[in-house]
UniProtKB/TrEMBL annotation:
NCBIfam families named in the record: HMP-P_kinase (TIGR00097)
The enzyme's E.C. designation: 2.7.1.49, 2.7.4.7
Domain Thiaminase-2/PQQC, residue spans: 237-435
Name of the featured protein: Bifunctional hydroxymethylpyrimidine kinase/phosphomethylpyrimidine kinase
Residues annotated as domain Pyridoxamine kinase/Phosphomethylpyrimidine kinase: 1-223
Gene name of the record: thiD
Keywords carried by this UniProt record: Kinase, Thiamine biosynthesis, Transferase
Pathway: Cofactor biosynthesis; thiamine diphosphate biosynthesis; 4-amino-2-methyl-5-diphosphomethylpyrimidine from 5-amino-1-(5-phospho-D-ribosyl)imidazole: step 3/3
Lineage: superkingdom: Bacteria
Biological role: Catalyzes the phosphorylation of hydroxymethylpyrimidine phosphate (HMP-P) to HMP-PP, and of HMP to HMP-P.
Example GO molecular function: hydroxymethylpyrimidine kinase activity
Source organism (scientific name): Glutamicibacter halophytocola
Matches recorded under InterPro entries: Haem_Oase-like_multi-hlx, HMP/HMP-P_kinase_dom, PM/HMP-P_kinase-1, Ribokinase-like, Thiaminase-2/PQQC
Recorded catalytic activity of this chain's protein: 4-amino-2-methyl-5-(phosphooxymethyl)pyrimidine + ATP = 4-amino-2-methyl-5-(diphosphooxymethyl)pyrimidine + ADP; 4-amino-5-hydroxymethyl-2-methylpyrimidine + ATP = 4-amino-2-methyl-5-(phosphooxymethyl)pyrimidine + ADP + H(+)
Pfam family, one: Phos_pyr_kin
Length: 443
């Protein structure tokens, strides 16, 4: 149910006029709703002036529902949406959750804007203490590839969720969308942290699909209906397609014993030695993807990933392995040959690369709960359940998604096949220590 507090003449370039509604009429709208409809949660956005704030404040005395207060002060375009920020103070004590952006947060505390994420969290904690509310700290206005958000109480951070930044100028309404989604999802679930996680996932998709709308010349709106009208996400479809393969990885003795720590160390070493051989080649393939990449962002990502493997993941292997001279197995060679054969195009190559991220992230996540300080393979389990690996996987998936969107029908099919084949190779790869120890000589 919606109550109009102000009419705005605005487009994607800015707000050219604001016509505030009479406080009395705002109250009439609010009363009309609460007289008839059960209120499960309230989201408050633009309030324009003190008279409207007084009307809303009075009405809140008559209802009992959680309140998400988005202290809307200035639009993305820089135009003012509230006459005087100080008048909001009277409403802040009524909020269950306050959702200021970085500048609004500073303004509510009468302080300079935070320069980094720890400062944002500190300001959020102090605002939460001042108003006995939760504060949703938002990092969308910070520089960097990550957009962190955290739910903060007077005691500190309750939950934190980060996502990659979409490279788009179409972010009109991100804060409004997040607070509305938070209130709505909370109404149906009753848990703020879980509501935030879901609201962020919804918003992430809406921002990701914003460019498809192509509205206006300034900051266009996010795509609220991406779930309904956008093409089905090809990555979801691919993931579904390897459902059985994923199940067969779960059923491998090797994986079960790796999880519970009963895996024979000789089997683990065999697997790691093969994996080290594979990763050396995989790093080269990532560097080749970087060379083929269509833009700087992708070029940097794949080159960075190659380096990360050479300097990070392979170190993990060396920490377990004695200096050895293992030869690649038939299974390892088959897999790297498949990667090499996918080099016909950038899109196909990164589709072939993807399972090595995605399946390891998936397994790492599920096996993480089996880890403990005495676990013989604890470092392996930590590596693939880490937040860094999660983020890298998310980025790799998105790179493939973007390439898929730009591909024609034939190329899309070759990409899908390359992805499925690599997934099949992954199953065989995990299984090889227990079964097919056929090694090829390096001669
Ligand atoms: N370019 C982007 N890509 C992904 N998420 C974004 C982007 N810009 C903002 N967000 C997310 O949108 C939400 C609103 O963030 P923020 O921009 O900080 O506040 P506001 O929109 O109120 O100014 C946050 O969850 C933030 O992480
Ligand atoms: C009527 C109205 N309410 C709120 C805003 C602010 O939207 P935007 O400028 O896009 O900022 P966020 O939603 O990202 O906080 C507006 N322009 N108009």
């Amino acid at each position: 149910m919606c109550v109009i507090t102000a009419l705005t003449a605005q487009n994607t370039l800015g707000v050219s006029a604001v016509q505030a509604i009479d406080g009395e009429f705002v109250l009439a709208q609010l009363n009309a709703i609460s007289a008839d409809v059960q209120i499960d949660a309230i989201k408050i956005g633009m309030l324009a002036n003190e008279e409207i704030i007084r009307a809303v404040n009075g009405w809140l005395d008559t209802v009992d529902a959680p309140v998400v207060l988005d202290p809307v002060m200035v639009a993305t375009s820089g135009d003012r949406l509230l006459e005087d920020e100080a008048v909001l103070d009277s409403l802040l004590d009524r909020a269950s959750v306050i959702t200021p952006n970085l500048l609004e947060l500073a303004s509510l505390l009468r302080e300079p804007a935070a320069a980094d994420w720890p400062q944002v969290l500190d300001q959020a904690r102090r605002l939460a203490a001042k108003h006995d509310a939760l504060v949703l700290a938002k990092g969308g206005h910070l520089a960097g590839d990550l957009c962190p958000d955290a739910l903060v109480s007077a005691q500190g951070v309750l939950a934190e969720f980060s996502n990659q930044r979409h490279h788009t100028k179409n972010t009109h309404g991100t804060g409004c969308t997040l607070s509305s989604a938070l209130a709505t999802i909370y109404a149906s679930g009753g848990d703020w942290a879980s509501a935030l996680e879901q609201a962020k996932a919804y918003l992430f998709r809406a921002i990701g699909a914003a460019d498809e709308l192509n509205v206006g010349r300034g900051h266009g709106p996010v795509n609220h209906f991406a779930h309904f009208f956008s093409e089905a996400d090809p990555m979801d479809q691919w993931w579904q397609q390897i459902h059985e393969l994923r199940g067969s990885i779960d059923n491998l003795e090797f994986i079960a014993q790796l999880a519970d720590g009963t895996l024979d160390p000789a089997d683990f070493e065999y697997y790691l030695a093969q994996d080290a051989l594979y990763l050396q080649r995989y790093a080269q393939v990532l560097a080749e993807a970087s060379a083929l990449a269509p833009d700087l962002d992708a070029q940097r990502f794949w080159a960075g990933s190659a380096r990360e493997i050479l300097e990070g993941e392979l170190q993990l292997h060396r920490s377990y392995l004695a200096e050895g001279t293992a030869n690649p197995s038939a299974i390892t060679l088959n897999y790297v040959n498949h990667l090499a054969a996918s080099k016909r195009s950038y899109a196909e190559l990164i589709a072939a690369i993807l399972p090595c991220y995605w399946l390891y992230q998936d397994i790492g996540k599920r096996l993480a709960s089996a880890n403990h300080p005495e676990h013989p393979y604890k470092q392996w389990l930590v590596t693939y359940a880490s937040e860094e690996f999660d983020l890298a996987t998310e980025r790799a998936i998105n790179m493939v998604r973007v390439a898929w969107k730009q591909a024609d029908v034939d190329l899309r099919e070759r990409m899908r096949l390359a992805f499925v084949r690599s997934s099949e190779h992954e199953v065989a790869f995990f299984d090889q220590a227990r079964r097919n120890r056929v090694e090829f000589s390096t001669a």
